[in-house]
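Whether sequence alone determines local backbone shape is best considered at the level of individual chains. The sequence in question and its structure tokens are set out directly beneath this paragraph.

===
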Amino acid sequence: MKFPGTVTNMLKCIGAVNRSLVTLTLPRIRHASHYVQGQSPELGVREYFYYIDHQGMLYLDDARMKNFTSCFKEKQFLKFFFSRLKFNYTGRYPDFPYLSPCGKERNYIRCDDVPIVFTNVLDSDSEKPLLAYNHADRYLTSEFKPEKICMTDSGRVYHPAPEKTGGVGLISDKLSIDWTSDKRFKFENGDDSPPTHFIWNAKTIVLKNELAAKLENRV
């Protein structure tokens, strides 16, 4: 598999790829957004562009096909990439509101919804379950706080995420559907209103909906 420059550098940083095996991809041009993958706006600086879908999968932004075969799957790389994720305050490419810097490389990111997408629950029977995000399993986790789940009018479900990316993460469709199928949500104010309770480990938990204000003011 050929890696773009940013992936190569990140994998070098974590020692996952031997220097002699690294191969760079040719630049890809995306005319609509006026960028070239791997462009160098100033000496020593390279810029790359990514996209995160609502399932939490990461792609090169200009990939023609965005599906499981074309997304990034190497978990150590995902950890490296997402652990550096923050808002893009560079003044460049405002349509890419997030940035994952790697040395002198700037990795700009746009997304379908929010960049942090929780994909599965780990240690579900323990007193401190975890939510894994963006398909990195135990490499990327956050403490699961059921009382802080928030469902919007659209039906999408959210949970607190790192503040440096806005403090809000999306529950993936698969996980949300599983919870709905298991009848974990209770709607005491009627089905047309947000859920009032969430059932977890045989406990009925009151939902505080504290994320509602952040969802209204997010990027």
